[in-house]
Amino acid sequence: xxxxxxxxxxxxxxxxxxxxxxxNDIQAIWHWFVDIEGYLKGFAITPRELERSLTDGMHxxxxxxxxxxxxxxxxxxxxxxxxxxxxxxxxxxxxxxVRFFCDIQxxxxxxxxxxxxxxxxxxxxxxSRQGFTSYMGPEIEFFIFASxxxxxxxxxxxxxxxxxxxxxxxxxxxxxxxxxELGIPCEYHHHEVAESQHEIDLRYDEVLRxxxxxxxxxxxxxxxxxxxxxxxxFMPKPIFGANGSGMHVHQSLFKGNRNAFANPKDKTxxxxxxKQYIAGxxxxxxxxxxxxxxxxxxxxxxxxxxxAPVYIAWSAQxxxxxxxxxxxxxxxxxxxxxxxxxxxxxxxxxxxxxxxLGAGLAGIEENLKLEAPQKDNLYDLTELERHQRDxxxxxxxxxxxxxxxxxxxxxxxxxxxxxxxxxxxxxxxEFDEYRTQVTKWEMDRYFAVL
Length: 450
Fold this sequence. Notes:
The protein has helices spanning 14-23, 50-56, 116-129, 169-181, 207-227, 272-283, 285-292, 298-301, 349-365, 383-388, 398-406, 409-415, 417-435, 440-447; strands at 28-34, 40-45, 58-61, 75-87, 97-105, 133-145, 186-191, 197-202, 205-206, 231-233, 247-255, 258-259, 311-312, 314-316, 323-325, 338-340, 392-393.
């Protein structure tokens, strides 16, 4: 291969990877994975260690990774997934680098049960045994601020604002270019509702690839923002009184080349299977919500009045419902899908997508009946009206969401008891730290009058 050659098939092997690294002056080979919260972790090796890694994987200390093993059982192995080999965007702060996503294993070569990526792969295998391929497409929003220490907006644009008011256009374009070079296509980008808020939509793909792409996307957005001298954050609600950032996830199941969600003869355009899948999302929403909205800040986004759904219901096109079915174009059956609107970008994509897919599959397995769609703006209904329609609320804070997950037999069976227990305990500690803080709001409200 020449200095720029990649496999014509697009499929990497150990041999083609070794040749590519040696002929392209690659100096760092990054091994990526995420902790239980979804934070990117990794280590780099030199080219001379690459053959050993491709053969045996690389050992590391799992006790230092959030939600992984205790110190007395800390040895783990990061084994590169060859299909994820890619060049990292070049920048002045680092040598020319490539990366793999890794599967985490125990020293005896078995999959590590608390690896979030491994958890998603288990649910994918379950879907595959039923003849399904799962596709998802996340819309991941973010904010750009002057710096990490100065949360000052860089523009005062609004929804679909164009340049020059939209000062993030060049950043988003650079992000899309970098992602394209990594083999991650994007559909479109635009300024979002809040000042200095932006959205880039990843193209629909098989669920494991899109989860890897979501992690890469967040890495690239932050790197590109840094190169422009600004700071990007995926915090769900960084500005009081403004819309928060969501991660709406479009979902469908295919059987071969056929979209199993589509039924053009049904007035909704949805197949019975799609209706059961949506019913599963609705049934298990409370139990899965801590994986879709996993921070204390998430629940400051999930409040009425800011376009974020707070009620467990579905609708065709109505954005006030938790699950929306986008408009269906006749003859475009492959695009039929549902959109889950409550997740946000602080979620671990592997665990979020695993619970979404798992809940949908459960709806199919349990032959759930889908309730009638809600056509009204749910924010306009009174509490009594919602009660009469049997519309439940999503959890109102992280503690409430964790309580549902902690007692959920469904989630524990889906993800594994130890992974769920580690996640819940970690997040309860986060909530306890939060609830014991004395905030400026409390001082302003109470100090002078009590």
